[in-house]
């Protein structure tokens, strides 16, 4: 294991490994121990008591963070010509169809979210192997395949994120930036955690929220108390 720098040692020393922190305490502590030259992302890792291999325990959804993600989300709108003006006005960074499908075919994926309409989805099928692994494939369940393109773009720009449980039962999501106030980080984190609580599948047995860790891009993790959620 690489040796820790003095800053990293100081950060580790501030965390009580035996303590479960409240969401508010965790947010304040992660801010305190993040010493990066860039504005680090603050993330939650929530281990759920579900079996993601079973369809009735698959957790996937969307949540709008009250204070946004702090990230400038680059949106590609793959739309027919009659929807181009609407998509541009709503703030999409890239708008078009066939020329962007060709670019993606060539390996271009320099966007964070792709929003499209039902009639275009057939053209996206063959690009699944490029878009799927990068989490860019539009999906009606997350609101990225819709006739109301403008609304979908506005929501993504305002801080709507989608999340899904991975095969080990963990949901990873960014809930802001280290430059956010601790209050804003707490409110964003709570919004995600409350959404996960509401999504508890009837088929999930035993403890649902097993553990919650908050960290920033370069900081050690702070363990939160699931009982405070």
Automatic annotation (TrEMBL):
Keyword Repressor: yes
Subunit structure: Part of the 50S ribosomal subunit.
Role played: Binds directly to 23S rRNA. The L1 stalk is quite mobile in the ribosome, and is involved in E site tRNA release.
UniProt name for this protein: Large ribosomal subunit protein uL1
Domain of life of the organism encoding this protein: Bacteria
Pfam families: Ribosomal_L1
Keywords attached to this entry: Repressor, Ribonucleoprotein, Ribosomal protein, RNA-binding, rRNA-binding, Translation regulation, tRNA-binding
A single cellular component GO annotation: ribosome
Family: Belongs to the universal ribosomal protein uL1 family.
CDD domains the UniProt entry points to: Ribosomal_L1
Organism in which the protein naturally occurs: Zobellia barbeyronii
